[in-house]
Amino acid sequence: MKKVYIKTFGCQMNDYDSAKIKALLGEDGYVATASPDDADLILVNTCSVREKPEHKLRSFIGEVRHHRERGARIGIAGCMAQHAGASLFKRYRKDVDLVFGPDHVPNVRELVQRTETERVLENSFLDNAAFAFVQETHSDGKVGAFVTIQKGCDNKCTFCIVPMTRGTEVSRPSAQILDEVRALVDQGVAEVTLIGQNVNSYGLKTDEKTFAELLYAVAELPGVERIRYTTSHPRDMGPDVVQAYRDLPQLTSHLHLPVQSGSDRMLKRMKRFYTRERYLEVVSDLRSARPGLSLTTDIIVGFPGETDADFDETMTLLEEVGFDGSFSFKYSPRPGTPALRLSDEPVLDRVAGERLKVFQKRQQELTLVSNKRDEGRVFDVLVEGPSRWDDDVMCGRTGTFKMVNFPGTADLIGTTVAVEITRGFTNTLRGELA
Ligand code: 5AD
Ligand code: SF4
What we know:
The strands form five sheets. Strands 2-1-3-4-5-6 form a six-stranded parallel β-sheet, sandwiched between helices. The protein has a five-stranded mixed beta barrel with strand order 15-16-17-19-18. The chain has a three-stranded parallel β-sheet with strand order 7-10-11, sandwiched between helices. By secondary structure, it is of the alpha/beta class. It has twelve helices and 19 strands.
């Protein structure tokens, strides 16, 4: 029996690719192991969206390189492998046997076999027509599962490296998506999350269903209790998707809608193709379609040219929308991105750091307010499993995607139960079966 260890950095796309790699290698007799120490194959699935994950790659290789001496193979996958594959292949010539980009995940079995006799580098983009989505129907007994509906991205947000690492957009045929969802439901999955870099533009460039039509089709499948999706672009948030929030109770009451900045000047420099006003309009439409909708977002501070006034606009947008949560980042210049040309107006690192702190502090307060507001209310909670520290406490999520801990037994796992919220904290809710 051969063992594979995979360390995954980055977004849900990478999580999904890692799961696919495990499933495919499983066909060659590999089982997943939780430690590199007993692995025959050690893979790291990398992210290059910001600087930090790139540093993490270096320390990871440093930690595992000695396993090669006992015959283990080591490989680098993911976004860094895609855009910096050749240089990684060279830099780690003594440490790494295999470097492959996301397009080559479907061929991972063959790539690994080739490492028996040679070092392997595969980071070309496949033709869009040749790109094959892997049918992945191993739910691993989980209550929720990801389903890829699209790969790549045709947007050109000036800060973002993803178009360079994941290539242009390809929509997966809807028949395949629906088949995969059906198979997952048969294995007991109750919640599906449709994933892609820009899901709302699904199908627009082909004669496939639109994203909204896909949502309705998934909702029609028996057994699909909850539908989520990520990530969506505010520009492509059309009235048909808003309408789906009226029509489809399966669509959960949470949306991650990255705004990046509250300043029109910055949005323009980022080439986001919407204004602050338009974003607020979308939010208001969504909230009338689905009262109680919880909203989260992504924010970048310190984008080149961002003044105190621009940052203030981000802060006032945070107040106006009252985001339930957010991920916020200091701008990090990425190789090959158009924003490098704007670097004549860099924001001092110290200034960006201060802005990040101010933003995150206020967001934490607002998240707590949002969670306190839930006290006394009853939510449908899809039970995911026992809490990490106590088997008599179950955890699960509300439709608003908040984590709830409540006293309960393991037989509730996979079911939806009514839970009354007794306490709201910054990161979680506590409740009791209602
Ligand atoms: N610098 C900082 N944050 C970035 N993001 C993407 N690229 C960069 C960058 N160069 C953030 C965006 C995006 C999230 C996934 O990561 O906010 O929505
Ligand atoms: Fe995901 Fe983007 Fe990071 Fe790639 S670069 S892993 S697509 S977040």
